[in-house]
């Protein structure tokens, strides 16, 4: 799987071009959730890197969600779940919003509450956790492709990939609990 990028040119960049400070990101969570974040070594530095990716995510959001649903449609059972409860076109709209919010640089009670609500939605439609996890992996791979495409510096690219994998892992902790 490889995302189709908007342009062929390798617009390599450094995350320095979009420098975010720690004051611009927020982690405000309960003690228990803080332990979850500590165990995956997720801190404000990671959230800064995640927020720094926001413009790239926005630029490539169409390809990310296209890939996401193309992947799910390989499985006829998942395709049926989607069409029984909604449609790819409608879900693309909600997924776009959801992914963009993930890169806002804010992890607080509202962030957590929204994810718990989405988790309940997926339980209601009978989605098994294994399929949920497959979808997360596909999403992670798409974002890694974007980082690989645009980031020049190996260390910056690696740090950004680690930060994204942590925020996606945290979201999985919330929705699969
Ligand atoms: C709904 C995100 C995986 C099927 C939603 C919504 C979001 C979302 C944000 C809208 C919830 C709302 O309206 O309140 C995600 C994320 C996933 C994921 C982030 C994993 C990374 C899947 C998978 C399927 C799926 C694997 C496979 C069938 C659906 C369906 C709905 C839905 C059918 C609509 C439910 C309804 O409105 O009755 N999802 N989803 N999702 N998702 Fe997912």
How would you summarize this macromolecular structure in one to three sentences?
The chain is mostly helical.
Low-confidence stretches: none
Spatially, the strands of the biggest sheet line up as 1-2
- Ligands (ions, cofactors included): protoporphyrin IX containing FE
Total helices: the number is 9
Q: What is the molecular shape?
A: globular
N to C succession of SSEs: EHHHHHHEHHH
Spatial separation of the terminal alpha carbons = 29 Å
Cα radius of gyration in angstroms: 16 Å
Largest sheet, strands/sense/barrel: 2 strands, parallel
Helix content: 55-70%
Average per-residue pLDDT, rounded, comes to 93
Structure class: mainly alpha
Strand tally is: 2
Oligomer: single chain
What is the strand content?
under 5%
Q: What are the defining features of this structure?
A:
two-stranded parallel ribbon; 177 residues; 9 helices; binds protoporphyrin IX containing FE; 2 strands; mainly alpha
SSE arrangement:
Blueprint: E1 26-27, H1 31-39, H2 44-52, H3 54-59, H4 61-72, H5 76-85, H6 88-102, E2 106-107, H7 109-124, H8 129-150, H9 154-176
Bound molecules: protoporphyrin IX containing FE.
Structural notes for this entry:
- With 177 residues, the protein is mainly alpha-helical.
- The protein has nine helices and two strands; from the N terminus they run βααααααβααα.
- A two-stranded parallel ribbon has the order 1-2.
- Helix 2 (44-52) crosses helix 9 (154-176), helix 4 crosses helix 6 (88-102) and helix 8 runs antiparallel to helix 9.
- It starts with 25 loop residues before the first strand and ends with a helix.
- The protein binds protoporphyrin IX containing FE (HEM).
- Protoporphyrin IX containing FE binds at residues 72, 78, 81-82, 85-86, 91, 94-95, 98, 118, 121-122, 125, 127, 131-132, 135-136, 139.
């Amino acid at each position: 799987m490889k995302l189709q990028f908007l342009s062929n040119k390798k617009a390599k960049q450094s995350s320095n071009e979009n420098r975010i400070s720690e004051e611009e990101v927020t982690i405000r969570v309960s003690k228990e959730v803080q332990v979850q974040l500590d165990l995956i070594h997720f801190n404000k530095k990671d959230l800064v890197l995640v927020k720094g990716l926001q413009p790239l995510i926005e630029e490539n959001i169409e390809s990310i969600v296209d890939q996401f649903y193309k992947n799910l449609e390989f499985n006829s059972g998942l395709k049926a779940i989607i069409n029984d409860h909604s449609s790819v076109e409608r879900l693309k709209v909600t997924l776009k919003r959801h992914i963009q919010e993930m890169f806002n640089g804010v992890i607080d009670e509202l962030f957590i509450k929204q994810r718990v609500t989405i988790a309940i939605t997926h339980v209601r439609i009978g989605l098994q956790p294994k399929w949920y996890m497959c979808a997360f992996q596909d999403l992670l791979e798409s974002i890694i492709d974007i980082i690989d495409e645009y980031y020049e510096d190996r260390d910056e690219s690696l740090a950004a990939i680690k930060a994204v994998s942590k925020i996606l892992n945290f979201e999985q902790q919330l929705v699969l609990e």
